[in-house]
Amino acid sequence: MTDLVVDNVNFAYRETPVLTDISLKLRPNSFNLLIGPSGSGKSTLLKLLSGLYPTFSDGTLTGELTLDGYDIHDIVPYQRVTHIGYLFQNPTRQFVMRTPFEELRFSLENLQVKPEDIEKRITTAMESVGMTAFMHHDLMNLSGGEKQKVALATVLAADSDYLLLDEPFANVDPVARLQLIDVIKAYQNEGKTILITDHDWSGYTDAIDDIFVMTAGKLHNASSDEQQQILAKLPNQPAIHTSLPNEKEGIITLESVTLKNGKRTLLSTTNRLFPRGKRILITGPNGVGKSTLLSALVKLYPYGGTITYQQEDIAKRKIAKHVQDIALVFQNAEQQFVAMTVQEELTQAQALSHSPELWSDDTIITVLTQLNLHDLRDHIVYQLSGGQQKKLQVLLMLIIGTPTLLFDEPLAGLDSASQQHLLDVIADFTRRQHQTVIMISHQLHAVTDWFDYHLKFDNQQLNYIGDAS
Amino acid sequence: MNPLIKFTTVMVIALELTFIKSVTLNVIVIGVSGFLYLFLKLNWRQWLWLFILPLLPGLGSWFSLMYFGTGDHEHMAWIMLSRVFAYLWLGGLFTLKLNDERDVFLATLEQKAKLSATFVYALVGVLNFMPAVSQEMKTIRVASQMRGQTLHIWQPQLYFKAILAAIRWSQNLAEGMVSHGFTEGAARTHLQVITIKRRDWFLLIIILIAFQLLLLPNWY
To answer: What is the complex's ipTM, to 2 decimals?
Structure first.
């Protein structure tokens, strides 16, 4: 086992310190959890450990960060990766090839694995994450969770001593989550050391040996008491309390709607309505078609049958007009920014708001403070952390105030406090603006009593579940 | 035939065509290419492109030489028209099948032509990115329409966002490649070892010799 030393590490972007005086000791063959609020520096630390930073950032590093006595970022990548494997927070950012097979092959060829072993290692890794059927599929057409599995397979195939995972389950459904946890535990049993950042550790609390807590760029190793406290915070099985809708009319109706991804049927002929002014949750396994359904509702994805909005066939509506009534908060926040700084974004949104009287400067300041974004007004939006971008994006879309808002995993990658704040803000303003909310979420702990209705998307079916009202 | 060998054959012939002023020879090249296309199972669209694409530059030079040229301009006009067709039909033999042979071509460049792996995989990355570009443009437009702002084709903001996306994408690509252990200048192993068949070399030589023989009647 190689020896990873992290001692007195400081990391700063120009004048702004991101990490201060970090020391970290991972016990060999242990399972470690790194927690902390969004934007506290968890991802930055992992990128430093993986050797990608400071090379791929404009920050400066001081302190000792070594592997067997060599500076991590000085080790050539093909050797480094055999010691330290790193899974990005956003798997699409990690992919360089077109299919899972090519992706794994590229990686193993770089690591100079013998040609006769390559195929075997690819198959084993893909089998362990249950994705062999997708070996030669286009990565672009996979769902968020499927991509995550492929990304994990890639780092598993590299067989590194240390495995760094940055929120590996953020877009993964509960079933796949348990599968992936088993895969990671099995990997640990081969003598590997795991470091995982996560906001939700349900399903693997037993596996955790050490917990590290990051607060505003400072790190400490949780004492056993503190560890007990942290682990006790999450209930294991969240129950969602919703009722069945009894509305006869919906703001959106699906009439004999079908969805396909290539040849694969996602949704077989379905009639369903979405009642006006309600909060509707959509859950279901990865790759079942949840995001695709939302894309179809905003005319970004072809579908069969008829979708109507306020009794009007959306196929006949111009897209520019359509999205004035029904907007999607994209999974990738960056796609939705139109300006450079946080302040410019806010000004733009205010000017185009459906309810400008509601969004005074004071209101915005209050909400920004609530979401912990207040000090970031002059920052470039593309340089915010993943969690900060997500919160800003949601706020901007709320300010616009589109009558129907579709959210694709708005809580993924947020710590539980941020999740709660964001849900509060969404609840408050969608109520005041009489908006209809349709949301995909896997973060069920946060939303147990939040929704009116619950749609389950599974086996090509889309059905309301809940108690009869 | 290995795509790199095919590429070399096509390039050598095309280069020679540049110096040969012969309508007959151009027509022979077009004819032979056309004959080969019959075996390549093109769809009607590809045929359409083969006819339409050379038409504009071909007729352009034909008209300018025919009506504004001096000296032996009528002969030159026909040469230029047929030459444009010959170039494109010849090139098509390579490019129209490139989609299927892309991976082999790039692997050959890396393993046989000893091109730097950085260059080859950057190219792979770019080619993989192509289909994402139009989708990204569409998404950018709709995403900003949802923000109440319509970005029109002529608005620089749309391209700014697209360029921004491309820059970020290229950084991601570099970071992604390094995270997969890709190292500039380092050795790599290859799952698929490219061998160029002796038959391919043989074909290359035969075709080039045959082409030189065609030049004997002094058509130029």
So the answer is: 0.80
